[in-house]
Amino acid sequence: MYGKAFAPEYQGALTTLSVNSSLTDVLTAGTEELRAAERTGRHGEAARSGLAVAEAHRRLGQIGEADRAWKASYRAARRAGDTAAMAWALWSGGTLARQRGEFALARRLLQLAAELGERGGDVVVRGYSLAGLAETGRIQGDYEAVARLHEQLLAEARRRGEARHTVWALEGIAQIHRNTGSYDTAYALFEEAAEIAARADDRRGHAWALRGLADIVSVRDGDTERALALLSEAETTCRAMSLSSALAYNHKMRGNVLYRAGRYTEARDLYERALDEFRAMSEPRGQALARLGLAKSRARLGRDRAETEAELTELARTLDRIGLKHAREMVARAQEELELGAEVVR
């Protein structure tokens, strides 16, 4: 049985904030508490309110501000001698690094966060940090390496009755199954995640689960209208909570759904919109995925073959540099689908 979802990253004086609080509200409250803590020399409180500030900036796509905030939180935690708070700051920094496509740095920071969390006796930050490591591997396409860790973390979350973490793990495992073609299993897992998130009032987790369901409904069932309806429901939540990254991925998925339906002009417009959103938040993975969809849509709309080949060649190199194995394979499939030259993916 799961209780109501909570946000463990909102700490100290900010524990009254809800997991569903608007990120702009979190940023305002966190900044006010941070300034008050700094004025009075309360380093531990500065570290914990600074964590909320860092996470709000990150989720709003304000990368530079997020980077400065998590580092300041870590310094304050170190001055306070608070090992668990240091771990939380490193978790935030590692999550930001993954969002920026800096996967080696993400792994280093998240591993350190997990170790400090264990040393500081904070089982939650340890679990979140291990989850971050699992997600980093999954995003890079190293499914075999992280599938067992996902399952382990799911079991731990279920045992503790922690709804939000259970939802995250279910969605991660579902995405692995989706990417390896096990659509029925993926659908069942996304569906369970959506149900748990709804009961626990985890609106962010619910929005991501709806996006996953929309993807399966589109690719497996060809049900374009239902997929679009699910994405519209998720978008309402993203806007209400100012979830910039989730909203950009929602728009990118809407482009996928429209592309599969042969509605290439609409797909192109959605990919262009998503690309602008990802660029605004300096998210290279999202940019690469939106560029791929955009290239395919433009090709279907009559773009010169040589231009498409050149763009896919450059995109393949970008994905190799970032280290996104699964996305790199998507470029190869696009080359095959569009019947372009093999040099595109070399």
Automatic annotation (TrEMBL):
Cited InterPro entries: TPR-like_helical_dom_sf, TPR_2, TPR_rpt
Gene3D superfamilies: Tetratricopeptide repeat domain
Record keywords: Repeat, TPR repeat
This protein's record includes keyword Nuclease: no
Superkingdom field: Bacteria
Name this polypeptide is given: Tetratricopeptide repeat protein
